[in-house]
């Protein structure tokens, strides 16, 4: 083993390890700063996602001569009307059948109690009353924690409303002044950055649009299949449940669980436990098909990511940041892929152009050999000294035109 090669390998490994630790340290600092500014970053992220969803309509209006401010205002109002319509579409049927649902819930609880009183559980009324009293006592002992949790929940709702309002205003400004951003950014950046950063930003925008469209398509598939299953079983409120499934699809994992729980609960209180189990089986089958087939295929095709990368990104995002991490995992992974692909394009060696097949190949120079350039006997230059054409080193005079003020030669 060579001692010099060993020392060189150790120095290289040490340098690479130090650079890796430095990159990880800077990444940690960047994530810490992002967490400190999350109250501002989160509305911007939501506004960007909403803008990618509504930009095609705004672009259509602008191309047909609408002023940017008017087009952005109309699209924002239409978005608010659509959101309000979805809420009304869900709330009105539920409110109209609230009495039946309440009676169904009471009847379901009574059936559950009668089932628990029989074999194999044999839970009597005294045991139920004792368990109820114990639960009440625990609730009374935990009044402080409940109040704290309630205040925390109220604060979360207020923050959510503020975030939603701020995101709507930002969406309006993005729709209005979005096309001006890249030219402005180009003017602000120096040198090579004036080309690289706008290019990466444009590609990132296209990637975000592909993510939102693919997520909407997957949510539409969930809503259609689950709604069709609920209609076949005969569960009421099919349309509100289908709309709720579509909206909840934009929040991975938790949204699907919430929509499925609501559908199973309504099936239980209206049709009984058998239909509730059938609905649960339908929802589980559709969610498995969507999570393992539709979503990876659609998102991998639209975002340029492999299906396994999509699954791993959602899992990692959920483990690191919960619901928000699951929601942002796929677009963040796609943006990282955009940056990496652009960096690889810039660092790769340019490919030499292929030779033109119609163009004749250049004549190769003849190697310097004795007599290689000697003309054949009888050709011009064959009788010159040296047997070759006249050139530097020959003693023959060369005729030329007389210049101004010179005698002819």
TrEMBL record:
The keyword Membrane applies. Belongs to the autoinducer-2 exporter (AI-2E) (TC 2.A.86) family. Residues 351-409 are annotated as: Disordered. The chain crosses the membrane at residues 16-34, 40-58, 70-92, 157-175, 217-239, 245-269, 276-295, 307-340. InterPro entries: AI-2E-like (IPR002549). The keyword Membrane applies. The lineage of its organism: Bacteria, Bacillati, Actinomycetota, Actinomycetes, Micromonosporales. This is AI-2E family transporter.
